[in-house]
Amino acid sequence: xxxxxxxSDRHGPAAGALLDAAERLFAEQGIGSVxxxxxxxxxxxxxxxxxxxxxxxxxxxxxxxxxxxxxxIDAIRHRRLDAVQAQGRAGEITAIVGAAAETLAEVVADTPxxxxxxxxxxxxxxxxxxxxxxxxxxxxxxxxxxxxxxxRAVLTDLPRARFEARVLIAHHEAADCxxxxxxxxxxxxxxxxxxxxxMVNDLVAFLCGGLTAPVRLNLARDTTG
Length: 225
What we know:
This protein is an all-alpha fold. The chain has a domain at 68-212. It has 10 helices and no strands. The chain has helices at 13-29, 36-42, 49-55, 58-86, 93-110, 114-125, 132-135, 142-154, 160-185, 193-212.
């Protein structure tokens, strides 16, 4: 079932133009390769101080680019998780992980901004200076925490530290996998949608397999001594 995928934008026209330009440039070139001056020029604004006025800093602009999309994504993910519970599937890790990953996959495929968003998200997640997952407003990620809690209720035999480590890997891998696919194939179109769906299905299976894999110790023999 299609969701309402219109982004909520509480920024004014000038700030919105900066966000649109930044999202496009960050997606194309990476967040470390684009200057505020380039963004201001692409937004059609002649005053560099405009970016500082609206967002405070370059990092503040990057965060604003992501946060204006996250509120809508969070609401969609909650609806998917509601459906999982209504169907009596809250005890199935495939349903939980599927709901979480399919939310991002749907946004990437079915919004005009999703392909750029996921590439910016992947850049930010892999930039140690951003510390994105540690510093996001909890109000924008409540569905992620709900997914984590639902998964933990199923994976009770997995030690807490291993569970948290695997969830972190899953966050990064989901964004990176979709971003790499978009970079290689371009936006999702009728001609490549089937290949995109195959990738998403494999991604969900991979994430579920990683979360439920047995804990193995001493996989490699120590040959240093």
